[in-house]
Prior knowledge:
Low-confidence stretches: none
Oligomer: single chain
Radius of gyration: 17 Å
Number of helices: 2
Helix content: 10-25%
Amino acid sequence: MAIFISEDRHNTVTGFVEVGIRSHADGCDIACPVGFIEGWFVHENFRRQGIGRALMRSAEQWAQEQGCTEIASDTWIEDDRSQRAHQALGFEIVDRCVHFRKPLIQHSE
């Protein structure tokens, strides 16, 4: 795993990207490990300045250096801004998923 951080000239953190390697990711070749964006954020005051793109390029380069031929990511289904940002950087939507959970109540004996 690697974390790349961007800073302004005053050493204030402006954003970050966290990238790791997964054995598989939806829509990717199942025969190869894949780089995966675990987290990606740019502070609102610094958006639309190329910081997110530069961070993503660093993550992509790191994944390639680890032998990955693809990189994947995910975001919330209602987060249109994140979806547009991913698509602007060449990501394509490969699936939509609804996650479920159900608590299991333990019965006392």
